[in-house]
């Protein structure tokens, strides 16, 4: 099932590995079942389309692993809908590998982020709504399902904070009266997901998130009701505290992607705003979102992104 645009469209005691501040980023996949990618330079410039490797799909998630590489995983494709659990590794030079047979529950509209300085985690998603997570080792191996903690939901986002931890936030459930959420779930430096934290900011779905400033994060954009796209952002401190809404600059949209670049900055790009768009918005190392930059590459939504070095 593809959600389109109206719906979803502690450890061993060893010292944590400091997070690597990656210079480059990559956006990949998206509606309608695309497999193209677009690289992001260390100054935030998005490149033209690169012919995709692997199965074209949408609702994919991405995250970093191994201090300098990335991984895209899961998603959906086809008609009738097939929920996939395959993954594609991204090398330290931005080259995407062919499909790796998936591990864990196939699903789409999930989220992913780095934790522990050199590992990753995928969590939540739709098949239908689930809260399972899958850890990614520092060699890019996706682990089996871990029983989910917190509200099962798709359409959320995730990013790193604090140098070695992560956070999942926002999303959507099907039940009334409040299907759009602002809840968050922290991820420890050993990949343990915490219970729901009462949300801060506008409840919404289909947003994106990325790191900035070396140890902080930002959630941005999304949809707060069917057909109602918003341009707010919420900063995440280096202790995982989510701030109240900041009015964002740029085109309000849903199902976009976000990743780090330049070591301490971020970028949001692509998404849907009647119709799809390829515009991007840079995020400074103080968490300020810049105005729209004319899009490069194929306009699309339900896209994923991660950084590499």
Characterize the structure shown.
With 309 residues, this protein is mostly beta strands. It has one domain (24-308): Kelch-type beta propeller (Neuraminidase, 6 Propeller), CATH 2.120.10. 0% of the residues lie in helices and 37% in strands. It contains no helices and 21 strands. It has strands at 24-30, 34-40, 61-65, 69-77, 82-90, 111-115, 119-123, 133-136, 157-161, 165-172, 180-187, 208-212, 216-220, 223-225, 228-229, 232-236, 246-247, 257-261, 265-269, 280-283, 304-308. The chain has a 4-stranded antiparallel beta sheet with strand order 12-13-16-17, with no helix packed on it. A 3-stranded antiparallel beta sheet has the order 2-1-21, with no helix packed on it. Strand 9 (157-161) and strand 10 form a beta hairpin.
Most strands sheet: 4 strands, antiparallel
Helix and strand run: EEEEEEEEEEEEEEEEEEEEE
- How many discrete structural domains? 1
Overall residue-averaged pLDDT value: 92
Q: Please give the CATH architecture.
A: 6 Propeller
- SS elements, strand count: 21
Helix and strand layout, with pairings?
Layout (H helix, E strand, L loop, with lengths): L23 E7 L3 E7 L20 E5 L3 E9 L4 E9 L20 E5 L3 E5 L9 E4 L20 E5 L3 E8 L7 E8 L20 E5 L3 E5 L2 E3 L2 E2 L2 E5 L9 E2 L9 E5 L3 E5 L10 E4 L20 E5 L1
Antiparallel strand pairs: 1-2, 1-21, 3-4, 4-5, 6-7, 7-8, 9-10, 10-11, 12-13, 13-16, 14-15, 16-17, 18-19, 19-20
